[in-house]
Amino acid sequence: MRFDIMTLFPDLVQTVLSESIIGRAQKSGVIEVHTHNIRDYAENKHNRVDDTPYGGGMGMLMAAPPIYRCHKAITEALPAGQRVHTVYLSPRGRVFDHKIAKELAAYDDLILLCGHYEGVDARVMQTVVDEEISIGDFVLTGGELPACLVVDAVARLCDGVLSDAECYEKESVASGLLEYPQYTRPYDFMGLTVPEVLISGHHENIEKWRLEQSVALTKERRPDLYEIYEKERK
Ligand code: 4GS
């Protein structure tokens, strides 16, 4: 899968995505992450990409033409027949979750637009953006961290990104329940010991205990997720 990120801060995005599992996946070639500096598509002397809003008001907006040209350059360079989807990261979008990550993982190319200042000209939504996605109800200084977050969550669903051991983790979270408590050595940490069932060697009991823990934790902390889990069991 390929990711194209339109941003004013390509170095920020590259730095975040070049480490750890996503960095490894790029090196091995199972995913490609390309950043595009929107400023390179400004066609004026000072490479300005922002301007004041019509009607007045606070702050600056990202103008439509440089974003449009940047997007055109990306899509024109792609091979024909690719499934392409363009997302603008914004608090106005539908709120990102595991289900949306799975939807986005079905595309060949995901183009992500990172906003700055007070946002982008509304005509960008009419011309290049397929949908807006929010990573939560709070306001950030730019769309770069949301874009990195979406790439991370989507890329780990692509074949070959996670090792078999790392895949194991995928099952529990994707089940719609919160993760059960986990322990590693030492057995006794500051007088806190590991639950006996986990050292019993009885795999059936261990699985039962873990599921019970997951269900109880989900019911207590995330009644919204618990309700869905209950419904889907019927
Ligand atoms: C989010 C968010 C966000 C909004 C970008 C103000 C700069 C900022 N983007 N989910 N302008 N929450 N964007 O806060 O996606």
Give a verbal description of the structure.
The chain is of the alpha/beta class and 234 residues long. It folds into two domains: 2-155, SPOUT methyltransferase, trefoil knot domain (Alpha/beta knot, 3-Layer(aba) Sandwich); 172-233, Orthogonal Bundle (Trp Operon Repressor, Chain A), CATH 1.10.1270.20. Helices cover 41% and strands 18% of the residues. The protein has nine helices and nine strands. It has a five-stranded parallel sheet, with helices on both faces. A two-stranded antiparallel ribbon has the order 3-4. Helix 1 (10-17) runs parallel beside helix 6 (144-155) and helix 8 (203-221) packs across helix 9 (223-233). The radius of gyration is 22 Å and the shape is elongated. The model has no long low-confidence stretch (mean pLDDT 96). Bound molecules: 4-amino-N-(piperidin-4-yl)-1,2,5-oxadiazole-3-carboxamide. Residues 89-91, 115-116, 119, 134-136, 138-143, 146 line the site of 4-amino-N-(piperidin-4-yl)-1,2,5-oxadiazole-3-carboxamide (4GS).
